Amino acid sequence: MKAKKKKKIRLLFILVIILLIIMLVFFFARRKETIKHMTGSVEKAGGSKKVVEIEKKTITLFFLSENDELLHPEEREIYLASSSPDELARAIVEEIIKGSSQGKMSTLPEGTKLRQLYITSDGTAYVDFSRRITEGNYYGSSGEMAAVYSVVNSLAYNLKSVKKVVILVEGNEKETLGGHVDLSHPFAPDFSLVAK
Question: Rounded CA gap, 193 and 145, in Å?
């Protein structure tokens, strides 16, 4: 009697194992089928790949010199995946944030981030910085003016479509960056602040 019971339990155990093996085989077979199907879709989409051309562009940025309170031009080559004005404007501001590569003084505090940038149809560039831009030591109105006009003049000089620039902080209008320059209005470029 015990032998029959043991035999039934063994048989049941073997059936459960066989059932598990069948389920595993079925599961992995379905998975391979899904992977093949997805690969086919990717290959189809890949067949119509869009070729992205990287464009090299020379831009002029404006930084402070230790010798005077004027902005000094600095040429730099950048690479763009798109020739849109918004993309170029973003690249210009990112390069200003990186600072001078020729030993001039940076105009924006280290750690400043560009959050958003867009240009409207009337030529107004809205440049939205992280709050770090308000935490810099601008050393008076001339330093703060240099921070503002390094951005404004660099954008207007390189993009003829940019007529004025609005500076925002964390998506909002601020009164000033450091207590001296009124940010409540758009800034037109002022090349009288640039060294001859």
Answer: 9
Answer yes or no: are the C-beta atoms of 145 and 154 closer than 8 Å: no
Region for residue 103 given its phi and psi (left: phi exceeds 0; alpha: psi -120 to 50; beta: otherwise):
left
62 closest CA partner among 179, 181, 148, 132: 148
Q: Where are the domains of the chain?
A: 1-49, 55-193
Phi and psi based region of residue 16 (left: phi greater than 0; alpha: psi -120 to 50; beta: remaining) = alpha
- Residue 136 and residue 147 in contact, taking contact as beta carbons nearer than 8 Å: yes
**Torsion angle of C-alpha atoms 181, 91, 171, 130, degrees rounded to 10:** -70
**142 compared with 46, residue with greater pLDDT:** 142
Read off the pLDDT of each residue in 106-130 and give the average, rounded to a whole number: 95
Query: What's phi and psi for 155, nearest 5 deg?
Result: -65, -45
- Residues paired with residue 168 on neighbouring β-strands, in sequence order: 128, 173
- CB atoms near residue 58 (< 10 Å): 9
- Does this model's pTM top 0.90? My answer is no
Q: Three-state DSSP class for 172?
A: strand
The C-alpha atoms of residue 185 and residue 173 are separated, in whole angstroms, by: 9
